[in-house]
What we know:
Blueprint: E1 2-6, E2 10-14, E3 20-24, E4 29-30, H1 32-42, H2 53-59, H3 73-88
Antiparallel strand pairs: 1-2, 2-3, 3-4
Amino acid sequence: MKVLKKTDTYTIYKKRSGRYAVEDALQNIVNGADKINILIEAGIIKQAAIKSLSDTQEEAPTVEEAPAVEEAPAAEEAPAAEEAPAAEEAPAKKD
């Protein structure tokens, strides 16, 4: 791992996989939201613009659902149901 940035409170590493690792001053690994906030503050990653829920609903086109057409799935399931119990039976042991 390469050291990208070292401060008094944390150290940021770049792994060979391209990911980042953050250690605090006590050499404990920092994860989750704390890690993301540190990487954003350091300028290593950029925060994506998050759209609000109302914006995404306005942009989404309305989709009309077609009526569901049912075919005979019960006829196909019946033979499979008969075969399953036969496969579960264990052969009798011979003494």
